[in-house]
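just leaving the lab so this will be short. below you get a single protein, a line of residues and a line of whole numbers that encode the local backbone shape. id like you to explain what the token line says about the fold, in plain words if possible. thanks a lot i owe you, the record is right below:

…
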Amino acid sequence: MDVNKLPIIKYYRARRARMREQERAQQALRRFSEIYIGERPVDLARFGEFRSEAFPACGPFCWLDQPNALREIGRKRRSGEITAAEADICERWTIDGYFVAEGLISRERIDEVWRAYETALAGGVIETNHESLGEDDTLPGRNLDAHLAVPEIKELQRDEEILRIANLLFGRPALPFQTIIGYKGSSQSAHSDHIHMTTYPLGWLLACWIALEDIHEDSGPLEFYPRSHRLAPLLLSRDVEIAPYEYKASHGVAYHERYEPTIRDYIDRMQLRPEVFLPKAGDALFWHANLLHGGSTRRNLTLSRKALVCHYFAEGVVTYHDLSGNPSRLHRNGWMNPPAAD
């Protein structure tokens, strides 16, 4: 081969490679637009960590997060698109960031789900950590994603009425995602779910907390801060200076040292006051992804606080975990396949 031609050959090879890469990237953006609702398509194959700063700032945003949400609720009510009861749910959600559905789940069904959970624990189908706070704290800890192993929990997670409310609040179909079930209160510091379960575009997540027994005020009941979804900023890892890969490297220490004190500072500065949730068995609390909430102090460690919390993403969004930098398992079939519930 004529050595004088080598630079030319290398040039055309590099050019063909660039053209192939450009075509691949264009196909990725077209495929993204077919699957996801984000107004600005992104090439997910180029992502190292899935963190908020990797995504452009854009919509669409949930209809109840829009500045004209209350007017739109009124319009839909007058036109018959939603009922008066549904309009009340949407107004409470828009203003306060939560909605309580009393008696949503029957006592019989609650008991059935709890029996199935205890049977699964006793049979070793699922395991739980002790999470003890002292000698008197003999209750088992919480279990993450028990719905993957216990059909009765999955059925409750996908309850028709729960999904109807979630679909109403999103204005889109809801995808069931994570569950947390357990005997006792979490004693977890105030936080927003956004940093744990994140979406592109932002805001397409909600939670439903279901009481599996009557909750006692000394058991460490759930507490939340009404209207904080609008008052507190949406803080993600970058906003509290948790660097890429740092959460994993620090085994969660960075979250406790930077995120939690920042949230507490906002609560103190805005003089937010918590509301304690003391429901009856079968009552359900729906909350906005940015509503600040946590577990109150367990004044009596022998008291149980049996509950199931379910998280839901909206269909058509990229779902990921900003803290860990991982895509959610809903993308287990590949980022360029429609996210699917468990």
About this structure: The two ends are 58 Å apart (CA to CA). The longest strand covers residues 174-182. The domain at 47-331 is CATH 2.60.120.620 (Jelly Rolls). The chain has a mean pLDDT of 93.
